[in-house]
Structure formats: C-alpha cells, structure tokens
C-alpha cells in the first residue's frame, strides 16, 4: 500500500475509532444480530482481485459493526466489564507495525526490555516485593498454565523428561482450589495431564471464600492416602462474586506442607494499586506465582496478562529448549525460554502508553471510582425491599437479585429480567448461581462509566419489577 | 482521551507508521543497542501524574525505535522473514478498538463468525477439502498444543478425567517426528505431560525429509515393546531447511496403525495458494490436523495461527468446560469451547483486510515472486565456486555456506561472516547446523523485498570472501 494511501485510510480508521468511542452509547450493548447473519452477508470465497480499501471500510460499517457486542459500552456490565483506552489502542497500532516476534533478545530488544521495565513498574504499583519477576502472556489461562507447569517441575519427579505415562512410580498428584476458582485452572490441570480427578474443589464459606479448615483436612487426607499435593490455587476476586480467599492462612498451609502456591488475581490485581484496597491482598507476597490481567481492569486492550513468579529459573527450566537456529552468544534474557509460545507480541508498549498517559494517580482514581459506583449501586439494592444482595462487594462487582414478594420462582424471574435487559441492547448483565439461586452480576469497570449509567440500569430493573407487580 | 486528542495523536502515529514503512531501509536491520541500553534509559517507576502524550511519542522515536530489530526491513532474512502489510496493520487498529473477547458467540458475533468465514476462505485458497474446519490461535506453538491434546483425547484412555499420574494402566505414549521437526512439538509434548522421552526423533534422509522406512520400523518396535503410538507429526517446510516430509507415505503408516497425523505447515502453508506449489502438499488432506501461520508468510501482523482439524467435536470434547456465568441458551459456536484460552482476540479482521486488499491473485503473485528470488539467489550460489548450496530450495529459504578453497575451518568462517553481516545492520541472516556444517539461512518473505536486496546481500557475501582471499 503506497504511503499516501496508508496515510489516508489510516486517518479514516483513526477518525472512525474516535467517533466510535465518542458515540459508543448510541449502539446496543449486545449485538442485535441473529446467529448466522454476518456469515450470510459475506461472500463464500476470497476475492480473486484486490479490492479498493474504501470498500473494506464500508463493510466494516455496514456488516461488522452491527455484529459487534460493544465491550466498550459503559453499560456492558456482564462477565467483567473492561475497556480499551485510547492510549492503549495507539500502543496496539504501533506494536502491529513493528511486528516484532520476541523470541531472542536480539530479534526484539525493545520488546524484551520494555516488558521487564513495565511489569516491574506494575509490581511496584501493586505493592509486591522485588523478588517477583513478571512476564507478559496473552491470557490468564496461559499464565496459569505456566504456573501449574512450574509447580509440576518443582516436584522433581522427572516429568519433563520421563512424562507420566508408562510409569508406576507416580502417586496421584493433587491440585486444591475453592469451588469458586476460575475454570482456567481446570483447563490447565486437564491439559497438563493431571486429569480432572486431580482437582480437589474445596467448599467455600458463606462469603464464598475457601474454607481453609477443609483445605487443611483435604491435604492431610490426601497425604494419608498416598497422594501428592502439587499446588494450591487461592483467588483474590473470584469470577462469580469477587470473593477473596484468605491467602495468608492458605500460605501457612502451603509452607507447612511445601506446596506451590499460585494466586489468581486476574481480575482484582489492578485494584491493588489503590492504597485502601491493599488489605485485600494480604499474604499474596507469600505466593510462588501470581497472575493479574491489565487487559481486564487497567484499560489496556486485550490481550495482556502478567504472571509474577519468584523463581524465574524454575520457569526457564520448565520451558527452555533451544533449537540450533535460535542459538546465540549473548548472555541475555531470551523470552522464548520462558513459555510455551516461541514468539511473543510487543504487548508491553500499550501498557507503557496507558501507564504514562494516565499516571499512577489517574489509574488509581478510575479504579477507586468504579468501586465507589459499585457500592452505590449496592446501597440502592440494600434499600429496596424488592431486591437483595447476594454477596459482599469488595471491588466493583455487585451480585444481587430481584425478590419481590408474591413471586414463587425467583430464579425464573431473574433469568427473565436478565434476558430481557440483554436483548434490549440497553445494558448487558450476566449471571451466576449462588447456593442454587439465580444471581445477577453487575460489573463496573469501563473507563467511560458514570453514575448515570448505573442509574439507567437501576431504573430498568425497577421497571421490570413494576411490570411483575402489574401481573 | 478526548476525541480530538485521540484524532490528533492517532493521525501522528499513522503518519509515523507510514514514514516508518517508507523509510524502513534507512534503519539497521538488527538493533544496534547493547543489552540493557533501553532499560537504563527508562525511569525506574511509573510516573505518578499522567504525562502529555506528545512526550510518549517523542520517547518512541528516541528510545524505542533504536531498540527495534526491524522485522519489516526487506533485508531481514533471518529465521523466517515476515512482514506486517499496511492493511493488516489497519485491521489490528480496529481490533484493538473493538476489544472484543470472543468467548461466547453473543459476546462477539463479529469475531466468531468472521473467523469461520475467513479460515474457510483460506482453506479454499490452499486447496484443502471442506471437511477441514479452522480455528485461529495466537501461535503455531499453541495450535500444535491443541492438536496433540486432541490426539491424546482420541486415545480414549480417560486422560481428561483420570489424568496420567497415580495410574499403572498406561503404556508409554509415543510421538513420532523427524529430527528436523520444530521445537514447538517438543514443548507441547513436555507440557502435555508425556515427557521428552515420549518423542521419537526419526532420522531424515539426505534431503532432510523424514525417513519413512525408519518411521515404520520405530512404530513397529514400539508396539512390540508395548508402547502406544499417539501421534505422528509430518512437516511441510521444516524450519531449518524447509524440507518436505512425504506426507502421503506417512499417512499410509498412520492409517494402517490408527495413529493421529498432525501436519506442521506453519511456514509453508501460505505457499499452498500458489497453484504450481500444490504438489508439495500432496497427502496433507489425509491429516487429522494441520497448522499454518498467516503471520509468517501472508503479510498479516503477528499473531495469527490457523489450526485446521477434521473432527471439530473432538477438539470441543478435549477442551469444553462451561462455568455457570458462561452458560447461554443459543445453540451456536462458542469459541471458548475450542481451546485452552477462554477469550480470543478479534484476529480474523486483519486477515480479512489482507485478503480483500491484495486479493488471491495479489497474494499468489507475491509468494511466487519470493520463491523466484530465492531460486535466483540459489543460482548465484551454485555458479560460484566459493559458495555451495546446503539444501534444496522448494520455497523461499536458501541454505548455503561459503567454502573458499584453502580455508580449514569453514564453520568458523561462516559463523564469522554471519556475525559480521548481522552486526553491521546491513542485513540479518540466521544459521543452522546440517550434518555438522555451519549453514547460513537466507529467508525471502518480506512484502517489500526486491531483487536489489538480494544483490546487496550477495555483494556483501562476496566481499567477505574477497577479504578471506586477501589474508
């Protein structure tokens, strides 16, 4: 593409994005497409001859945009609300252009070094000690996979070389986590060859935190049965309710038993930069590894997950494997040695842009405000007899349900309310089941979210209950 | 960031990229930084207050740019030469802005459906039958990991549920590949818990292709010993020399023994769109899974790897795990069911842009030209007594070495030549060892590469030999 053409279409796309962010509230949150709509609108095969790029941009407007569910919409409250800030998007543009594959230091000094610097900045911001070294992966699923692979390597059972099949000397390996732990743990355990039966799901207490006493018992029982504890996963900010496991007490058990401790702070980690939330993170500095996702709540475009580990050499020992064509003489950090992926995108650039543009103070203020808004919404729930809170609100997720008197099947009611709201495109909520109760989840995390957005959701919710009353 | 500010800095970055691509040859290919230079130039901590974004752009120019190894430089001939085309970069810009996490169809209909459409376009272009269904992952390492996980699942040994530890009923599982197979296979095998001893590296013939007879013997021996063959990996376009395993003959063996066949075409797959190269891919339609990387040789910014599988249900069975907050009622493809990562970036957009802008004909013409250039360079080598070819050139990689008469240690000579060229910033070559011989690798794959770039390398190489003669 000639320089002037790239310039022209690049400016058009920048303007498109600027308008998109500005007008984001004019779109339905959830795409109003039906399954198959986009597919049906596209040709069955790639064009033989090249097309004018202007046509492509037209199709973005006419075909792609209606098929987008707008994660950037401030009324996207489902799953975890996230957003791509403008400086983050600018960072992605440049990373795409540089197109470095960080395998060796020499193939991408910028990516290798900026990553180390930026994850160390983040480490300081969240108050972790200097012994933690960070690496950037794509997603928490992959970060967690690496953590559990490290735990396996640390057992010194020769699994890297001899594997687990065709052996009779391996006890059953066990991984412990609460019933509220994220499914990425299950997936990693399965992928690593431990099998689902290796996962011991410890019940949680009435605040959805791991029952530490039951964890202690499970480990003792397993050891008595000849099983080998491999790892405990504690979560700060579970996905269903953002509940907080007592990491200090879990760490006591891990230390006593010599078990690898992984802390999942994929969602909440960003909140550790806010001084008054530091207390939620007590004990995480005792972990062997911690995952946190700036692409969730630090306004960084997807994907960027950080894994902090204390023993970087162990991570290298788990993964390093150097083919001849990748051998070099420099004694430097070659990122390919620290993970399953040989090459890495230049992800640190966008996080660096975000940190510099907003500054620590700007990031703290935004996360603090999200948590204030969530507590405000929780207050409205608390004060209304037609609604009830279903879980505490340590961060910026509100778990609640409608409970108007005279309605027998509250689960059906709440499911209907959620589906109606989502289908309308006005807002997007998701749900979870807590003790058999269908629970609505409202997540506050968008960089553009304001009090009026929560007022809008609240008004809609109230109108749904009004409609129930009229039946 | 206010709309006008984003517009201003967005345009600045677009112009920066336009100029960067235009002036790419003015940069040294390999960064001239020393390890630690960038780190030393950056503050130790993130700024407390937000900064003017103009300062950030200044630092990109002053600090980041000198630390970039320019994969976009047409004289980057190391590893595999790749490049980010302009339409691909424009696609990444938009993907970053939409910031969708494709887990559920409903959270990203555009990403879910466009991905299926685009990988089907690519399937047709490379001539694979309709039974192959494609999924986009980040890297070939991850695609391959999924393929081997599927192979494990297909064994029906209950590994997903029971795992491999604490069992005495599992035979040693074995994975077969040639000694030239990419290290990502080794990494996947280790990660999946098979252990390095599960990998059987079959010797290759004098064309660096898997010795099929030895493969047959190894499998027969293993079966006689009570081991269980799990998978064979055949490669079309190995990393060291782009050699091509005889997939048809390998497939015969796999079919006879009921073994899963994975084909690694990560590098070469893009060349299958060129009609006269189709013969190199004979038999790959018999594979259970195939990986190819548009981010390598289809002008798509990193990362975008496609895994084609015949049995999509098996892939789902390997990975599906649905938490309550992700349960939905639509009967649609939810991409989270097909991989280790819960969420996926909107990667298909950039590939769609590339396919439409260049058209099939434009892409074919560029890859054809790269192969022509590589053969031309090989002809220069062939015609010069001071140099010799070290491997056939089916695609666009030339393996060669200098061999002037009178030099005793040719390995040392060629290593020195490579290091001098790389250090100069004039061009970047990498190497491999073939039968103990230090071999230079020249990869042609950049969208901006022309004959003059190869002439430049050839001239430098000749001058190095001239210098030898003068000693």
Give your account of this protein's structure.
Two copies of one chain form a homodimer. Chain A is of the alpha/beta class and 471 residues long. Chain A has a domain at 101-345: Type I PLP-dependent aspartate aminotransferase-like (Major domain) (Aspartate Aminotransferase, domain 2). The first copy, chain A, has 15 helices and eleven strands. Chain A has helices spanning 3-22, 37-41, 53-64, 86-98, 109-126, 140-154, 159-162, 183-191, 212-224, 247-257, 294-297, 312-319, 348-383, 410-424, 451-470, and strands spanning 133-137, 173-178, 199-202, 228-235, 260-264, 289-292, 305-309, 387-389, 397-402, 430-434, 437-443. In chain A, the strands form two sheets. Chain A has a seven-stranded mixed beta sheet with strand order 1-7-6-5-4-2-3, sandwiched between helices. In chain A, strands 8-9-11-10 form a four-stranded antiparallel beta sheet. In chain A, a hairpin with a 2-residue loop joins β10 and β11. In chain A, α6 crosses α8. The longest helix of chain A has 36 residues, at 348-383. The interface between A and B is large, with 161 and 161 residues.
Brief synopsis:
Chain A has 471 residues and is an alpha/beta fold.
